[in-house]
């Protein structure tokens, strides 16, 4: 007997990040007040190995086959939604979640999807409670000095011609004396980083500025970020810093590797692509990035191209691994001395049509099972011109969104 899943328009309702039901908030994908949030779990699983993207597609289609879909709204992001958070490395577990209730918003249009025989669930306002407990931070796999030494080793390998670029990540452990509120983290990140995609899947929470791939009908979009400078807080000075970033040979070199890797990965699946000649400077609350939006039109093929195909082709890009990929991956395993887990892996949502939005899990942290600690991450692209002290400062700036969100007590 198929299970009913119903999607209908919502009337006036609270802001997306403050919506609440009687179920636990389990998933989110929010940008500028628009997006999707999910409550409860109807189905969830994990996949692992080199075929994890194909296995995720297979599992998703198996679940769809059991559903009787009634969708009066239509359009991308409506109907049943799979939230996914893939591991960076194939040896680690990736998480897939289908929420029981999903609320969506795009512009002035909002909708709700629910699984089961119930009538439309009641949606109420939710105000995030004040955070409780005492928070502390400690070094993860490498302390500051050891991580700078790893950066220096990576620069030596690059100058010796072993590779062109490698992305080195680091982690920090946050511990709280009470349970860390997921709602508060999502609320804070949404309010303070509205131009990022604020996500949550299976206790992985973050605010990523980087879109690995969006597929809407036949249009593909990927936003690549590589090259970073920390903001000063002074508007006039930051304009000068943005100009210096746009002219920095070190940052432009790093950015070129990342853009090239994405364009080459998309080319086999697209009848046409558009790759801008120069990047723009993306301003975030704490840093600025060199950014390029690559777009393409998917080929008309006998076998339809879905977002899982594109993810498998794009991950890992030079923006989170390096160039060439296999050599950079080996250097990461040698120098990072930690397991990335789902950090820097693809994260986002897929709908029943195979369309969706998938970001890269950056500016992120993973809650422990008891939800009293969180491992937060940042990474930096290392090229021949990199300086370990500067890279450390950049990594600290990239830790700031999650660190500040955890520290908030008001």
Averaged pLDDT:
91
First-to-last CA distance: 49 Å
> What is the number of independent domains?
1
**How many helix segments?**
8
Measured by DSSP, the beta-strand proportion falls in 35-45%
CATH homologous superfamily identity: Anthranilate synthase
Shape label: globular
Main sheet properties: 13 strands, mixed
What is the CATH class designation?
Answer: Alpha Beta
Rg value: 21 Å
CATH topology: Anthranilate synthase
Low-confidence stretches: none
The number of E-state strands comes to 25
CATH architecture: 4-Layer Sandwich
SSE-based structural type: alpha+beta
Helix share, percent? 25-40%
Give a nutshell description of this structure:
With 410 residues, this protein is α+β, with helices and mostly antiparallel strands.
Overview of the structural elements:
The protein is α+β, with helices and mostly antiparallel strands and 410 residues long. It contains eight helices and 25 strands. The protein has helices spanning 52-64, 144-159, 182-192, 235-247, 249-266, 307-314, 325-335, 388-407, and strands at residues 3-9, 19-20, 25-31, 34-39, 43-47, 67-71, 81-85, 94-98, 101-106, 109-115, 124-125, 135-139, 165-176, 197-201, 204-208, 211-216, 219-230, 270-274, 280-283, 287-298, 322-323, 346-351, 356-360, 364-367, 373-382. Helix 1 runs antiparallel to helix 6 (307-314), helix 2 (144-159) crosses helix 8 and helix 3 (182-192) packs across helix 8. The protein is globular. The termini are far apart.
């Amino acid at each position: 007997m198929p299970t009913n899943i119903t999607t209908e328009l919502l009337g006036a309702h609270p802001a997306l990040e403050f919506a609440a039901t009687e179920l636990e908030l389990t998933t989110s994908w929010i940008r500028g007040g628009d997006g999707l949030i999910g409550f409860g779990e109807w189905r969830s699983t994990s996949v692992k190995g080199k075929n994890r993207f194909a296995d995720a597609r297979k599992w998703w289609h198996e679940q769809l086959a059991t559903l009787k879909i009634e969708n009066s709204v239509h359009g991308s992001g409506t109907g049943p939604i799979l939230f996914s958070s893939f591991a960076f490395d194939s040896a680690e577990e990736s998480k897939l979640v289908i929420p029981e209730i999903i609320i969506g918003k795009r512009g002035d249009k909002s909708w709700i999807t629910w699984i089961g025989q119930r009538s439309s669930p009641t949606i109420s306002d939710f105000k995030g409670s004040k955070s409780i407990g005492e928070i502390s931070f400690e070094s993860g796999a490498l302390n500051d000095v050891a991580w700078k030494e790893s950066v220096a080793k990576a620069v030596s390998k690059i100058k010796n011609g072993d590779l062109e670029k490698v992305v080195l990540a680091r982690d920090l452990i946050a511990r709280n004396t009470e349970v860390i509120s997921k709602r508060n983290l999502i609320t804070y990140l949404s309010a303070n980083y509205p131009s990022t995609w604020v996500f949550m899947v299976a206790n992985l929470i973050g605010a990523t500025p980087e879109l690995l791939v969006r597929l809407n009908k036949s249009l593909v979009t990927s936003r690549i970020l590589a090259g970073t400078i920390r903001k000063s807080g002074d508007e006039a000075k930051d304009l000068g810093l943005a100009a210096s970033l746009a002219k920095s040979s070190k940052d432009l070199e790093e950015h070129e590797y990342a853009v090239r890797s994405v364009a080459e990965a998309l080319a086999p699946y697209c009848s046409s692509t558009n790759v801008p000649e120069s990047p723009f400077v993306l301003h975030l609350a704490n840093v600025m990035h060199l950014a390029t939006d690559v777009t393409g039109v998917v080929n008309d093929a006998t076998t339809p191209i879905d977002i899982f195909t594109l993810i498998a082709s794009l991950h890992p890009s030079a923006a989170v691994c390096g160039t060439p990929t296999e050599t950079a991956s080996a250097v990461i395993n040698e120098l990072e001395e930690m397991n990335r887990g789902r950090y820097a892996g693809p994260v986002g949502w897929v709908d029943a049509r195979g369309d969706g939005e998938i970001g890269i899990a950056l500016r992120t942290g993973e809650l422990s099972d008891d939800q009293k600690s969180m491992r937060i991450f940042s990474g930096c692209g290392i090229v021949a011109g990199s300086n370990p002290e500067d890279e450390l400062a950049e990594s600290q700036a990239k830790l700031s969104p999650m660190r500040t969100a955890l520290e908030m007590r008001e």
